[in-house]
Amino acid sequence: MNELDQFKQTYFQECEELLVDLEETLLALQADGGDSEALHAAFRATHSIKGGAGAFGFDRLVAFAHTFETILDLMRDHTLEASPENVGLALQAADVLADLARAARTGEDPPEGHETVIAAALNTLGGLDPMAADDDDDDFDDLFAPVPVVADPEPVVPAAAPGSDGPVAYTITLVPHADMLRRGSEPLLLLRELKALGAVTARADLARLPDLAALEPEDAYLSWTIEVITDAGRAAVEEVFDFAGDDCDLTITAAGETVESEAPETVVAPEPEPPPAPAPKPAPQPAPVPQPAPVPKPALDAKPAAAAAADGTATAKASSMRVDTSKLDSMVNMVGELVITQAMLMQQSQGSEADELQRGLAELQQHTRDLQEGVMAMRAQPVKTVFSRIPRLVRELATQTGKRIRLETTGEATEIDTTVVEQLGDPLTHMIRNAADHGLETPEERIAAGKPAEGVIHLSAGHRGGRILIQIRDDGRGINRQKVLKKAVEKGLVAPDAALTDEEIDNLVFLPGFSTADEVSNLSGRGVGMDVVMRNIQNMGGRVSIQSKPGQGACISLSLPLTLAVLDGMIVGVGAQSFVVPLTNIVESLRPLAKDLHPVAGSNDRSVLAIRGEYIPVEHLSRLLNIPGAIEDPAQALVLIAETEGGGKVGLVVDEILGQQQVVIKSLEENFGRVDGVAAATILGSGQVALIVDVMGLKSLGGAPHRADAAGRGLAFG
Q1: Angle at 427 (CA atoms; ends 421, 430), nearest 5 degrees
Q2: How many CA atoms lie within 13 A of 342 on its CB side?
Q3: 10 Å Cβ neighbour count for 266?
Q4: Could you tell me if 158 and 257 are in contact, meaning their C-beta atoms sit under 8 angstroms apart?
Q5: What sign results for the dihedral spanned by CA atoms 533, 535, 539, 541?
Q6: Mind listing the pLDDT tens digit for each residue in 251-287?
Q7: CB burial class (10 A; 0-12, 13-18, 19+) of residue 491?
Q8: What local confidence, expressed as pLDDT, does residue 441 receive?
């Protein structure tokens, strides 16, 4: 990747963030009406996208963004009303902008038709001439027209002080670094952007221009003094230089007096006035002393454009940088290998008399853990990244279904591994669609059922038991179990005489090809969806569960791992095998008394453990996973009391506890295949491969008629 491609990559990353901000701002604008700060934020985001696109020659993106920002500007000055219809069109324009940005990034053609239709609608809405954008550039060279030498020029009309209602005159001093052009920044394009804000005068300083023999064509030599008169605000002026701020020394200062009349399109030096009538000759006056050009301030004095946030508060720009995800992944892998190496050293040093070695290994263990936690924190993202797409989706679903829907969200700041965030969007979108289409009733049906006409979808995220729990809850009709069972029988998914519990009927919606929709629509009816959701979540090491109450609604829960890299586990022995049980699941471990174990009626090998007034089902890990040579009598073995996401408990019978260790997660499904009750694999300090058990999956296996045949599938690791 050459240097220009790196700059383009940075622009596209910035563009993605700006598009997310733009959509959020427009949705807030639709909810709050003509909020001026929201309009300013939307305009700034569009303007920044346009500016970067112009620097890289993405003309199609520039042209559409120019039309779009013109409409937003008309809304800002109240020429156009920020009505729901107009903001709805702006949201569609934001979609086109995203399509064009994606096309510029991939080099593919954007979707046909949509861009033309939306651009025409924007032009019609604003009464714009589609050729105006081209015409606007015709007088760009006027900025550099020769300035007549005037002995006694007319004084410049002063500009409004910052904070007043009139336009403000800004003086900009731009001294480019020598490599500015090579880094992808072009001063002339910056001048074009400034001209879009108001009247501009530009003067070039040739002092640094060398002799022709010493001139380097790719170096920047010209310094600029630019005056711009605009009512767009300081933030808009600063935002022009967002992508060039590190490539030059920049100073922006504002004048202090009000402009009484409208500024001309282009400011040039005034023509000489006709000579006045003869008058008595005054005494000679000294020639006016020219004012020195403003001294550039340090770069830190220039207020970053990003400081003008949508909430109207000035905040310092966060100290952050972008890091390629592949580099983070490489670091995660290195940390994983370091964890394994540290575990091996600890294993080999057991019984050693060298106290210094033991202390050194203890410090290595602590440093390794600190490094791992730091890397995991760098990989974490708030789920708001995904949640921010949902309000727009709900608005569109309400329009398509004719239902009144209110979205509530909580826990948006909950952080989760970036890999999980990237894969969460599609499953979440489908479940929201399902809740709107199948779950919520029409306003008439809700009123008839004694409910408010407006339905509610609640989206939440939070931590539970060392995992992330995401829930999609609605207050709709709930699952019609009779209809679900009937459809499942009709499709041959369930035997006609099958006796299923309510929970088992609810889980039928996750079977491939299942749908209760009577007609195929653009939202549902094709039998493709919830099974894909289940598979995608399982591929992330997660689980999906559903609870429903007829007439009250349904809740789908996604349980996801905090990280896909490492976990703290309890290592246990079962027969000749070692297994890892996630430490976050374990409540306690004990050796039960025979009197506390009670057989389950109708079962020869099932029992429950009575402990502190609570009866906990007991499951033998050896039986669930077909491990030979294990202790059969729970009273002679150990029982781990493990907690599941739903708050339930299960007692896992193991032969012995071998220790506690931080282990590196290695995907079993990618390298072998999916095994019920097994989450992943790892390498212990001894070099032995061990399976990481899935407690929730083991609990499900305990109630299933067919247990996992792990040994038969070759999962015996020595």
Answers
A1: 140
A2: 23
A3: 14
A4: yes
A5: positive
A6: 999 875 343 433 333 333 344 444 444 444 444 444 4
A7: middle
A8: 92
